[in-house]
Amino acid sequence: MAVGFGLLLSLLLLSPHTLVGVSPPCPAGCRCYSLTVECGSTDLRDIPRLVPPSTQTIFLQDNVISQIRRVDLTLLKHLHYLYLQNNTISGVEPGSFHDQSQLLELALNGNRIHLLTPSMLQGLEQLRILYLSGNDITRLLDYTFKGLQVKHIRTHRSLHLAT
């Protein structure tokens, strides 16, 4: 029995991933604490892939992210707040937010978005605040915000939609 206990203890000491409380990796150049990941002003070109799946808040502002792809947020099913303002985002791939049913606030202001379509926002059933000011939105298609429960939508300086 002493040999078995010693072997078990050795295995636990050699394998830190089995220990309770070990934090998942944080993306290079970012700060991670609690359920928050801060990657603002780090010259990111893409949304980082190694974000802990339990993350609820991500700060990705003031980078050079040019698009949001379907695969970027797939594993982040617990996101509540996503801040992507002041990047160079010109495209949002349809279905990119499909797995973000818990997202409450989305900041896309200060980017280069020209057109919003309903398929770009699909999956954001709980969204309450959407920031879109400072983009190049020239028109909104019918039913763009259909299915959303947004309380505040801010687009161009001349248009503020609130429900």
UniProtKB/TrEMBL annotation:
Pfam families: LRR_8. PROSITE patterns: LRR (PS51450). It is a single-pass membrane protein. It is found in: Cell membrane. Residues 25-57 form the LRRNT domain. Keywords: Cell membrane, Disulfide bond, Ion channel, Ion transport, Leucine-rich repeat, Membrane, Repeat, Signal, Transmembrane, Transmembrane helix, Transport. The keyword Signal applies. Residues 1-21 form the signal peptide. Coiled coil: none annotated. It comes from the Eukaryota. InterPro entries: KCNMA1_auxiliary, Leu-rich_rpt, Leu-rich_rpt_typical-subtyp, LRR_dom_sf, LRRNT. The keyword Transcription regulation does not apply. PANTHER family: ELRR (EXTRACELLULAR LEUCINE-RICH REPEAT) ONLY (PTHR46473:SF22), GH08155P (PTHR46473). This is LRRNT domain-containing protein. The lineage of its organism: Eukaryota, Metazoa, Chordata, Craniata, Vertebrata.
